[in-house]
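Data availability excerpt. The first of two example chains:
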Amino acid sequence: MADPLLDTNIPANNFKNEASNLDGIAIDAALACDWNKAETINRQIIKQDPQNTACLNRLARALFELGKYQQAKKIYQSVLEIDPYNPIAQKNLKRATAFKKNESRVVTNPPQSIIITPNLFLEEAGITKVVNLLKVAEPQKLSKLYAGALVNLVTKNRGITVTDYENNYLGVLADDMAHLLLKLIKGGNKYQALIKSVKPNGLSILIREVFRSKKFRNQPSFLDSSKPLTYSSDNITLTYDDSASDGVESESEDSTV
């Protein structure tokens, strides 16, 4: 069966519908982290529309995630030839350039990887908190990170260090946030953290409460009166430990949430 994108006799309206459908499929593949499929679909679109910068950026991202850094770099460069001020290509060209040929990423495909959706970054009152890390890693390491990547919260006696899933250091939480979380974690709460945004010299993460101990049943993890948000039960399910003791168990010097 002939490829409809290569059939020059196909009506214009039908082609627009087909291209729109393929755009949706390509975006869905990227959200599901199916980068091989994303590469294939975006290449199909580009055969018919080689000046499509949005599609070229998606193709470059797929190539980057597959470790094809030089190919990704060339695609981003081609986008900038079409649109010299394209912000996505400008930003990601720097990321692709930071990788040497065959160099592995900081987080390639961790077993804790999750499907990236808009709801992933949704802030919920009392349940989530976006924080900026302090004493962050050097810019070259930060340039290899990406929004949505899961990170570790490593508890210490007096603070919390953040690492990627290969235990590479990324930064630390501010003392007030660290002290709050240490108390809640020792009391039985559990948290998930992911990268919210990356800058050359900065890194922010979103911390989400995923388990609330009986001890803190009526106590939200985070309070922010200056930014009221609406609860949404569709985005998180809290489980409660009815058998948990009200006492605080002893914590080892280092542990990972």
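And the second chain:
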Amino acid sequence: MMDSVYKSTLHDSFSISKLDDIRSYIAAEFAYERNTAKVDEYVGQLQYGPEKCNQYFRIARSFENASDLSNTERFAKLAVDTAVKYLDKQGNGVTPASILASSLVLLTGVLEKQEKYEEAIQWLTDKMGYSSEKNRPGLMRLKGDMLVRAARYKEALDTYTAMLKARAGGPAVEQKMKQAYIALHGADTLGFDTYLSGVKARITHEFSDSIRRSTVKLKAPVFELKDLEGKVVRLEDYVGKVVVLDFWATWCVPCKASFPAMQKAVNKYGADTSVVFLFIDTWEYSNDVAPAINDFLGKKQYTFRVLRDEKDAVVKQYGVDGIPAKFIIDKEGYIRFSMKGSNGTEEEAVNELEEMITLSRGGSIKNK
């Protein structure tokens, strides 16, 4: 049946990429039927390398749905290896980089079901370094989990600690650390609390040192934007103050995830007129988003000063390539720190901003 469907869809005008996509969908149907011979027949006809990782992943998922662990593993491995091979190539909509993490997650899951923990650890160790910065914390957490399953508790603790250092921790990771610690040292909750406090103190000290070393001094591009009430705001108006710029958009999930911490930072400096927070809304699909922004701010009770970068001019001036993106500008109008993304706990995010603001004022920070 599927063979006849394939033949009926063939057309001279189809590109190699389009034909490969059709072949992979048919192979995925055969995979769900656990017809390995037919899967291999259609897979053998795939031609365009950069898209093969996504096609192998599609077939692996079908084998997974058919509870065929062996072939799920086989095609998940093919997906990972092919993604790594073509990382610098652009597929048709789905890039190899975007499929790599998903393939590693699938492969780890199927290896775990077969109790192949050591093999899962090796694949994650060898390949997750090729993944995007955004996906790496999740893969690190998977590796930690596999290390626990393999009873390699000390290495699991080290992996979870690395997540805390990367500001990718939180209560769930700390609970996993506790489980690994107890498995290694016995049910000594007080001992774990002391251990975790020591880890956090060391990370805070190292992070404070890194902030001191990472300061830059670039003249901040000046701009003029309107706030939600139509009032004109100029960066030059804030010379003599430390200014925190936060670029965001209404559709940006990580931006909104960072806002509870940003509100705490705003509250912390609420009575300090020498520090100003400006939230620059940019990269919107429509210029008619002011009502939605006001509604969002009201529901969440955020007291942000929002400026509209309707022409995306300011975001270009600052060279932003991803949001959320923050810039800390000193009293003389120089960018001293910049960061993008949103990781870590709310407390960590607020402390990080506090240290950067202090240094931008020309002060010194104390190791906590």
